TrEMBL record:
One of its GO terms (molecular function) is acetoin dehydrogenase (NAD+) activity. GO terms for biological process: acetoin catabolic process. This is N-acetyltransferase. The keyword Transmembrane helix does not apply. It comes from Anaerobacillus arseniciselenatis. SUPFAM superfamilies: Acyl-CoA N-acyltransferases (Nat). Keywords: Transferase. Residues 25-192 form the N-acetyltransferase domain. Signal peptide: none annotated. Pfam families: Acetyltransf_1 (PF00583).
């Protein structure tokens, strides 16, 4: 499968800032930008920037960023599922995972997450993929936002819907370990039925769950 990547961008006007949402970017392009020190949800900001650089030039890797002038203040990553995850079992070339989406605290509330996903799906090549994301409540910034688990879940679902991702059932033990956890999926228009059926077999591996 050829991994085509077509650059797209939009300008997002907020009350205080003018932001550029753009991508997919290459590692070389990301290297030219500063990385906001508040992007620490997964690891310290400098290490997170290095992680993005590693993903950007993978054949299937996609990095979409939000930047304020020359500083990246938010990003979304798309990559093949980790080898240790259930979702990699089928070795599907047309299944890609929204691995991370993060926005620095001073820039939250500006609909950056929604627009990162919107720009991600502006690339026609995404119609060849099943795009998934796994949402676990223990990754959510409940303390920082002051939201309850269920209110945060509603925010996540609304944001993901901007990229066309919707809730899908699964018997994955980690997702089933808490009712707020969920699998969200977008099936591209050109994904063959064979791939959809293969994905269904990955989603449900215990017959009694059908």
């Amino acid at each position: 499968m050829k991994h085509q990547k077509t650059y797209n961008a939009l300008e997002l006007q907020t009350g205080q800032f003018t932001l550029i949402i753009e991508g997919p970017l290459s590692a070389k392009e990301i290297e030219t930008y500063k990385f906001h020190e508040g992007l620490t949800a997964f690891r310290p900001s400098e290490k997170q920037k290095k992680a993005l650089l590693g993903i950007a030039d993978l054949p299937e890797g996609r990095i979409i960023v939000a930047r304020h002038n020359d500083t990246i203040v938010g990003y979304a990553t798309f990559v093949y599922p980790d080898e240790l995850e259930r979702w990699s079992q089928g070795k599907m070339e047309d299944l890609i995972e929204l691995g991370a989406i993060e926005v620095a605290a001073p820039y939250r509330g500006c609909k950056i997450g929604k627009n990162l996903l919107k720009v991600s799906m502006m690339d026609d090549a995404m119609e060849d993929y099943i795009t998934i994301t796994t949402e676990y409540y223990w990754h959510w910034d409940l303390k920082g936002t002051g939201l309850s688990i269920w209110d945060y879940r509603k925010v996540m679902e609304k944001m993901m819907s901007a990229g066309g991702l919707i809730w899908y059932a699964t018997d994955d033990p980690e997702i089933c370990s808490h009712p707020a956890n969920c699998l969200m999926v977008r099936i591209g228009k050109r994904v063959p039925q064979e791939s959809i059926q293969k994905f269904d077999l990955i989603r449900f591996q215990n017959r009694f769950m059908y």
